[in-house]
Amino acid sequence: MRRLAEGSEASDAMDARLGARLAELRAERGWSLGELAERSGVSRSTLSRAERAEISPTASLLNRLCHVYGRTMSQLLSEVESEPALLVRATEQPVWEDRASGFVRRSVSPPHTGLRGEIVEGRLTAGADIAYDRPPVPGLEQHIWVLEGELDVTVQEMEHRLGAGDCLRMRVWGPTRFRCAGPRAVRYLLAVVLP
Length: 195
Prior knowledge:
six-stranded antiparallel beta sheet, alpha+beta, four-stranded antiparallel beta sheet
């Protein structure tokens, strides 16, 4: 799996485009940083630093902002990529990494804001644990197919242990948690369908 465009320059450029887009979304709604902080539950200073690309936002932070702005993470990330294509070669698929949590996310399907479905490859390092306090879009449908390793998924207070080949379908209305359950990294495919 290709690392985040091979280096910190590409990572910094992505963070800068992402920060600019987050600032645009807030400005489009006419919100102050304080208003966005109240709506998202993220501190004003963290929001400001993310918009200025002083920090690389975590998956949890992006999830909260996606919820407020009514988009999936793939939609948000595709908005900072170049014009979408019908075909995206494996070497050109955008990869985003949350180094703090050990989560790597590859946008497999060609991005397009007008489509309702997308495919994402996720990878969690051994022991990685990511909790989302809300879905980016309420009622989001997700299908999780584990390709390698073991994954614990908690949705609506019910925990599911998935091994290689297992597939879980869920509708997301509240908090979810993804945890690498085995001694090695887990790799899974996530099909996301907007309601």
